[in-house]
Task: inverse folding
């Protein structure tokens, strides 16, 4: 399967129905297509609403019905919480936890009435401490795109690698539109046989479609000084 993220990502960032289609295409590109059991049931989501005493946004329900049971696509590095583990903290609905519980992602409670609400992030602090929330994505569907772009790059059963590299030295890659809010230093780059992510200006994670492509990428990538 071919995938043209530079062409399709802008539309997906503007329309959540297009986001779900692109997520399905991403899963298929990595040889892990979505199936009926990939998503959570309405009963699971209804139970989460009853437990939390709130209504889940439309985009969150749609996303969880699509990929809520696919940790291979959503939780290789950080964890997308299942419906029965969603919880409230920092005046937010927490849906994702960093792999060492050093950071959290959530939807502000004040935005839960929006169909596709913005998301925020914050570092780990004591429960009694109120922290400043960092804007993360403009909508939950954009966050799901970011997850599906990033998390498969950390699947140890696939053709992946990690290192440091200078993004200014990359050749043969197309930088994709930014998924995250200004100030979030995560950039994605694509080529026909691979996807690459750079965070904090230097840390790189890459996944290729096969071993030959990965070996070629590792030989080509310049190391950061």
Result:
């Amino acid at each position: 399967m071919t995938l043209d993220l530079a062409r399709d990502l802008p539309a997906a960032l503007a329309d959540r129905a297009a986001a779900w289609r692109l997520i399905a295409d991403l899963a298929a590109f990595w040889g892990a297509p979505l199936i009926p059991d990939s998503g959570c049931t309405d009963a699971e989501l209804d139970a989460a609403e009853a437990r939390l005493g709130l209504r889940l946004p439309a985009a969150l329900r749609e996303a969880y019905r699509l990929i809520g049971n696919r940790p291979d696509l959503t939780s290789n590095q950080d964890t997308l919480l299942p419906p029965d583990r969603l919880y409230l903290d920092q005046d937010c609905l927490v849906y994702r936890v960093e792999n060492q519980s050093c950071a959290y992602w959530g939807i502000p409670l004040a935005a839960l009435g929006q169909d596709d609400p913005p998301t925020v992030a914050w570092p780990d602090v004591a429960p009694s401490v109120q922290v400043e929330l960092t804007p993360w994505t403009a909508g939950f569907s954009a966050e799901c795109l970011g997850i599906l772009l990033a998390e498969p790059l950390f699947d140890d059963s696939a053709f992946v690698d990690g290192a440091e590299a200078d993004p200014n030295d990359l050749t043969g890659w197309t930088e994709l539109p930014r998924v995250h809010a200004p100030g979030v230093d995560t950039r994605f780059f694509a080529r026909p046989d691979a996807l690459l992510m750079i965070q904090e200006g230097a840390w790189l994670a890459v996944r290729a479609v096969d071993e030959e492509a990965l070996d070629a990428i590792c030989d080509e990538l310049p190391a950061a000084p």
